[in-house]
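Office hours follow-up: a student asked to see two folded examples consecutively, so here they are.
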Amino acid sequence: MHPPAERGSGGTVHAGAGGHPGSHHRLARRGRNTVPSYILPFEKPILDLEKKLEDLRAFSQAQNIDVSLEIERMQNKITDMRREVYQNLGAWDKVLVARHPQRPYMLDYLAAMTTDFTELHGDRLHADDRAILGGFAWLDDRRVMFIGTQKGRDTKGNLERNFGCAYPEGYRKALRLMRLAAKFKTPIVTLIDTPGAYPGIESEERHIAEAIAVNLREMFRLPVPIVVTIIGEGGSGGALGIGVGDRVLILQYAYYSVISPEGCAAILWKNRSYADRAAEALKLTAPDLLKAGLVDEVLPEPPGGAHADPAAMTATLREALFRNLAELDKVPVDELLRRRYDKFRAMGVFGEEEAPPKSSDESAEVESEQA
């Protein structure tokens, strides 16, 4: 066991392919002024300026001419434009940011803010689902059980991780690890980034609904602090299966929804191209969720999203986890369980009021329409 001073600098992560431990280093090395390889539609004006900046730098080096003032002005212009664009994103735009393929995933955050993460495998019933992973790690001087969903960064990784869509054995593995954490009185942190649980016939055969339902029931009973963080996509029951906690945090451009915007559009308008309208109607963005009381805190992302500055996003996430765990440490177990239950029990509660009596003019209008 390391002394506390040696922990927390980021380092040892043991993981398989598809969530490569070194991927966070590649993300961190991508500078703010480097032209990104994946562009969202609303980022094209920013891309044009970044290309001009690269051309200006190349010209300066080739001609040995000092254009540092012009470079600085263009950098400031890019920064201002990025901030303005990201401050005015619509709901669908935020969904696209949450799905950005260069966005940090669970293993990226673990490699950057924890040490000695050792992945634990299997549900002891059927298989080891690679879409959900978990294990003990040191967050500075405290041991934490981290559990979360993991996507791949390439075709091979996505096939191994099933695009972040877990099977029933993934949720049963998560529950096994949560019970293990409770046994050793270790707090639990879950990091969620999934389009949803896998909906195929294999999941139905192995009872995906039962696996998620059991997780919901059992997470209310775990006598240790639980902090949930939605770091990207929070897709329906697939997210909720590891989403019951004392504190629910969400990154600024992440989303949490009962259905994907495309799925909602296909049902309501019989056309997935209406996904942008569905996203607005679903109220799935972080501010909407905070207003509705479905999340407790929104973690600000750097201008350009978490993928634009992974190091800054990691620092924000780490501070939030420390702060919330420290606050929950002070709550007695009985009170912790009561608050957790009451918190989720109150969700979805609404009141009904009797409609005011109709005026004579309105009644006459209704009668004429019926006639």
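And the second, which I mentioned at the end of office hours:
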Amino acid sequence: MELLTDHVLSKDEIDTRGSMDIYDVIVVGAGIEGSSTAYQLAKQGKKTLLLEQFPLPHSRGSSHGQTRITRKAYGELEYYTVMMKEAFSLWETLERESGRKIFRETGMLTMGAPGDTFTMGTIRCLQRHGIPHQVMDYQGVKQAYPMIEFPRNYTFVVDKSGGILRADKALISYQETFRRFGGELRDGEKVLDIIPGDTVRVRTSSHHYRAHSVVLTVGAWATKLLPKLQLTLPLKVLRINVLYWRERVPGGYGADRFPVFLQENAVDNYAICLHWGPEVDPDSRDKADDSWVIDKMKRYIARHFPELEAEPAIAETCMYTWSEDEDLILDHHPSWRNIIIGAGFSGHGFKLAPVVGKVLAEMATNKAPSYDMTPFKIQRFRHNAKL
């Protein structure tokens, strides 16, 4: 099968292609998923190139910012709970190798109204996997956390494994350790074309490269790059607000006193984030009107967190790429097995990044993945995608 691209290679480009070094793997996209993948490959001794379209560091994608929440229990999604066990271990490995503290344990408080399927599923998951936790009623949670206010008939559970990941520290740790293992990182190079074959050719805004395999972890830009490879998947790019709130009395919501927090949408003790927002073009995300999101969160804060000022002190944005079923996409391209795709992380990606990187590296080097990939295969979209 031939791939049609926007670019016709000149005779000079064709003549010099044979003299170019061939990488074992090129990873496109140096967010947390791509950086984790490249790190795993370099650690295995593979000649690896990591490409990033923006100069680093930047805040245009999905991996920047101060914190992300993490926990071991994943409701009724058993395959994520299994993966999270190894993710915790691999985060510890990165901390040792980088010399940075990335994870801080705070516990995670989840709550729901009577019959709430997510809360009940979380409790069953915690019990099934023997993860330390505490189920509380209204009186118990008010005694432990008097600074919050929720209905008396709610069920509350604290997953004691929960906490925060220092996002910026995690990303730079992967990139620096990748380089220390011999990897090559080039930022400020946008990928313009990918030409499949037994050897994959990659044309950027600055150079041409070749590799035996290519891994695409391009976040929101999957909606633009994958169609060039004759693949259109049901993905949405959302602009997400991350809001920071000032305490009325300092220290009440500090990490040593208050857990990360989850009620349908993730909320942590440093920032409160509604995991939804306007659908955007990743190249013009700042044009979106998301004032309704901020208004909704201000009302939520005033109602449930009375010891916080209702007006956010700081507002940041990032982009989430949602798959139609809100599960990850980790698979080979349907036509070219040496092009591997990691996309549609749907709010799950950061905490799972160490395992995602491990699995994508395995796929790029023709190894059997460490996990059952059935939930993450592209073929599940065969009825509503261009494969």
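Two things to take away from it. The chain has nine helices and 19 strands. Residues 78-98 form the longest helix (21 residues).
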